[in-house]
Specification:
The chain is α/β, with parallel strands linked by helices and about 250 residues long. The chain is built from ten helices and ten strands. The chain is about 40% helix and about 25% strand.
């Protein structure tokens, strides 16, 4: 579903690239994890795929077709993004229902072409909440709204940028399980960016590990769980994750 070939990204011409020669392939209907410490470039890769950063070298393909640097409108019907901070990604002065209508309006579709109540129920929300504003909802409810907004156009791909890191620990598992169920029900393809190996291990079948703008290793999730990684940075990341778990 997604193929990336030698993706290189610079924020300014002539400067050292922040992402270098990243290549990966994600099969349709699977969840793929991109992990690494903060600042390693994983979210920058996600933004390039989403079209938010069109200034890159290399090639990105969606379902076999090479994407133009400037994404066209149909692209956004097929690919949607869920951001890290649900409060920051929702408009504070618009009701939830108004924000669920925006993707339809942006695509030139009739507002009544999608049953918004059904979409809300699919993410575990009562439709009556749609008349509230974001500040009237909990963090977990806001992230469910963000997921619902991404699903309104019935996309094939969700790009997930640390979708649970801004949430309480008690809510994180609920959102991850919801995403798992939605992927299976809808045949969605996920690219999940995270620094949390536990989240990736729960969600994904394959993972790419990034360090300083480069992918240093790709493994399937069973190898990751067994600690059967080869690169020194991968071993360091695994070790740090285990120590973090014991400390908390």
């Amino acid at each position: 579903m997604i193929e990336i070939d030698n993706l290189t990204i610079r924020f300014d011409p002539g400067q050292r690239p922040v992402v270098r020669n990243v290549s990966l392939a994600i099969e349709k209907g699977t969840a793929f994890g991109l992990v690494g410490e903060s600042g390693c470039g994983k979210s920058t890769v996600l933004r390039a795929i989403s079209g938010l950063n069109p200034n890159y070298d290399g090639r990105i393909k969606l379902d076999g077709s090479t994407l133009d640097r400037r994404r066209d409108r149909p692209f956004f019907r097929r690919v949607q993004m869920v951001f890290q901070d649900p409060y920051g990604s929702l408009h504070p002065r618009k009701t939830i229902r108004a924000q669920l209508k925006e993707p339809l309006r942006n695509q030139g579709l009739a507002i009544n072409s999608v049953d918004l109540d059904t979409v809300l129920r699919s993410v575990g929300l009562d439709p009556s909440l749609s008349y509230r504003f974001p500040h009237q909802l909990s963090g977990g409810q806001r992230q469910r709204v963000a997921i619902a907004r991404a699903l309104v156009l019935d996309p094939a791909v969700l790009l997930l940028d640390e979708p649970t890191s801004a949430l309480d620990v008690s809510v994180q598992a609920e959102i991850l399980n919801l995403l798992q169920d939605l992927r299976k029900e809808r045949g969605l393809t996920y690219l999940l960016v995270s620094h949390d190996l536990a989240v990736v291990s729960h969600m994904c079948s394959h993972v790419a590990i990034m360090e300083a703008g480069e992918i240093v290793e790709q493994v399937d999730i069973e190898r990751l769980r067994k600690g059967a990684v080869e690169h020194a940075y991968s071993r360091h990341l695994l070790g740090a994750s285990k120590h973090y778990g014991r400390a908390h």
